[in-house]
Amino acid sequence: MADSLPGDADEVRADLVRSFGKDVLPAAGSSGAAATTTVSVPVRGQARTADGSESRRGWEIAHWAVARAGTLRIAEVSYEGRVWRPDTGWRTEAGEPGATSVRMRLAQ
Asked: What is residue 53's predicted lDDT score, i.e. its pLDDT?
């Protein structure tokens, strides 16, 4: 990222709530170093398409994160076995194709 400032997990969470409502995030309780460098948004109980592919809600959140990446200093977004980075865009990567959360890694 061109901006050398680190991302702020609390700022990302506040913006998520403004955009998607207070139920977008789990109840408070996450702590530790990972909580400050990564924001994970569960996509619980979302309806899946007939062929079992990705959740529409998860992709809404993932694309929101990409759109807000510059402002919120999000360095990476991952969901459903796909990872987005500013320098490469979306790529398929080995990982969790059945992931139930959208993960945003913040700039350090």
From this structure: 41
Provide the mean pLDDT of the chain. Answer: 83
Report the 10 Å Cβ neighbour count for 7.
22
The pLDDT value recorded for residue 3 is 53
Place of tokens 């050398």: 4
Buried b (16+ CB within 10 A) or exposed e, 52-90: eebbebbbebbebbbebbeebbbbbbbbbebbbbeeeee
- Residues with Cβ within 8 Å of residue 40, at least 6 apart in sequence: 30, 101, 102, 103, 104
Distance in angstroms (rounded) separating the CA atoms of residues 10 and 103: 14
Is this prediction's pTM over 0.85? no
Residue 54 has pLDDT above 60, yes or no: no
